[in-house]
């Protein structure tokens, strides 16, 4: 049995039964049978369904948003915005799918070669709790368009969301086996990956979980896409608009209570503007209102659980013991709920193990860089390479950052955010493969070349 706990109050919520081995087998068999039919549907059938699913998400966004808030604590306004973003993703693939799947023909000696994008089967997704709708939809929308079918193993603490997604997709007119939730524990994922009826697997989660899934997929010789952790740099150079940069830094570090892979976590500021940026950034972080996530005036809700809050507290203690200093905030708030104040860490020893980890909470690490070379060195001096945000009006610096920062994504003079149109993913221990855009669609398709 899965037990939902409201992280804003600590009160137990709904319970959700685990699927038995027989129920899991029934769902896998249904997915496999459905794929045999869905794979040969025309693109109009697929895109029409995607458009209807978008409408269903949009129409039910308040209820779906409330469910996410109750299960993992994000503010209601951000939860509703997440559902709206999901609707936009379904519409994007509905409108642009045919162009993405059009065959490509090139001349070859003696004739032509045409590349076709064809479905491969059932794709298993192992998804986390931090963006419980968006993480699923950025895989699910292209899965449906591709002619594949999907099986979801969602995080234990958001089983209500998982069930709601399945209900919404089915209510929009999807075949019963096109998308199904598997209410199971992580220990059962390996056997699923080994099942011949599962064609591929995608995971968004921790580095450790990614390694286990990649190992299982490798043993089964199956395609895998991994979107893992990040410790994204936020670099501020002397030519930056400091007011805009500081405002974006506050949002980047506290959105979703700091529980986002692409939340900027390490603020790397040029020495010439360090003090001026810190003044603005500190004022912004102090002004962040943590409280009831259902209240529209709240900036930041609780962390997803007491366990997650304690993990962040332990990381901060390790960094402080090694010489780091909490300049402000970063403290558990009194009363019920897994609340924590927004904080800033300075004097962080960059080679300390805790400073090399992903800090999944609303606390920023602030570093001083003497020049662009030092800023890039600091940015790259972690095992991760997911995203980055750079603030400079100097085009030569922008080109240098594009070339030399080791990341899968980078934003210039703005906060990094995902969008359905562009590929999303990282390098190094942040994973491999891409989601979203045409690249994400093609990850789980057979690129079949026909010579004639």
Word description of this protein:
This protein is 41% helix and 21% strand. It has a seven-stranded mixed beta sheet, sandwiched between helices. The longest helix has 25 residues. The protein has two domains: 249 residues, 3-Layer(aba) Sandwich (Aldehyde Dehydrogenase, Chain A, domain 1); 188 residues, Aldehyde Dehydrogenase, Chain A, domain 2 (3-Layer(aba) Sandwich). The chain contains 14 helices and 20 strands.
Outline the secondary-structure elements.
Layout: E1 2-5, E2 12-16, H1 21-38, H2 43-59, H3 61-72, H4 76-100, E3 104-108, E4 111-119, E5 122-126, H5 134-146, E6 149-153, H6 159-171, E7 179-181, H7 189-194, E8 198-204, H8 207-219, E9 223-227, E10 232-236, H9 242-254, E11 264-270, H10 274-286, H11 306-321, E12 325-328, E13 343-346, E14 363-369, H12 372-380, E15 384-385, E16 389-391, H13 395-404, E17 411-412, E18 427-428, E19 431-432, H14 437-443, E20 445-451
Parallel strand pairs: 5-6, 5-8, 6-7, 8-9, 10-11, 10-16, 11-14, 13-14, 16-17
Antiparallel strand pairs: 1-2, 3-4, 4-20, 9-19, 12-13, 15-18
Protein name: NAD-dependent succinate-semialdehyde dehydrogenase
Keywords: NADP, Oxidoreductase
Organism: Sphingomonas olei
């Amino acid at each position: 049995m899965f037990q939902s706990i409201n992280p804003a109050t600590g009160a137990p919520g709904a319970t959700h039964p685990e699927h038995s081995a027989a129920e899991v087998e029934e769902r896998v068999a249904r997915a496999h049978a459905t794929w045999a039919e869905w794979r040969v549907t025309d693109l109009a059938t697929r895109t029409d369904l995607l458009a209807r699913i978008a409408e269903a998400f949009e129409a039910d966004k308040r209820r779906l948003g409330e469910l996410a808030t109750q299960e993992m604590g994000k503010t209601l306004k951000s939860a509703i915005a997440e559902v709206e973003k999901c609707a936009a993703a379904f519409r994007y693939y509905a409108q642009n799918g045919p162009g993405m799947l059009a065959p490509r023909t090139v001349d070859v000696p003696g004739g032509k070669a045409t590349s076709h994008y064809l479905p491969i089967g059932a794709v298993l997704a192992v998804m986390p709790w931090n963006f419980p709708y968006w993480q699923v939809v950025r895989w699910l929308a292209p899965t449906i368009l591709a002619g594949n079918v999907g099986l979801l193993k969602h995080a234990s603490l958001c089983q209500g969301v998982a069930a709601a997604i399945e209900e919404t997709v089915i209510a929009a007119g999807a075949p019963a086996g096109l998308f199904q939730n598997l209410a199971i524990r992580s220990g059962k994922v390996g056997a699923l990956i080994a099942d011949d009826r599962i064609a591929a697997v995608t995971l968004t989660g921790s580095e450790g979980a990614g390694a286990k899934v990649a190992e299982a997929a490798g043993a089964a010789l199956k395609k895998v896409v991994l979107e893992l952790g990040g410790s994204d740099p936020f670099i501020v150079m002397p030519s930056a608009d400091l007011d805009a940069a500081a405002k974006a830094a506050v949002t980047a570090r506290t959105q979703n209570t700091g529980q986002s892979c692409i939340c900027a976590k390490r603020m790397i500021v040029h020495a010439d503007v360090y003090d001026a940026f810190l003044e603005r950034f500190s004022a912004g972080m102090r002004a962040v209102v943590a409280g009831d996530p259902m209240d529209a005036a709240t900036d930041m809700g609780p962390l997803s659980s007491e366990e997650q809050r304690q993990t962040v507290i332990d990381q901060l203690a390790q960094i402080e013991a090694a010489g780091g200093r909490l300049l402000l905030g970063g403290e558990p708030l009194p009363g019920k709920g897994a609340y924590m104040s927004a904080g800033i860490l300075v004097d962080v020893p960059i080679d300390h193990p805790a400073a090399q980890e992903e800090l999944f909470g609303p606390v920023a690490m602030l570093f001083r860089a003497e020049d662009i070379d030092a800023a890039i060195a600091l940015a790259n001096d972690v095992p991760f390479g997911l995203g980055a945000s750079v603030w400079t009006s100097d085009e030569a610096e922008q080109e240098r950052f594009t070339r030399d920062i080791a990341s899968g994504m980078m934003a210039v003079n703005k906060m990094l955010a995902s969008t359905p149109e562009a590929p999303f993913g990282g390098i190094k221990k942040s994973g491999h493969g891409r989601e979203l855009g045409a690249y994400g669609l093609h990850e789980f398709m057979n690129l079949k070349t026909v010579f004639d």
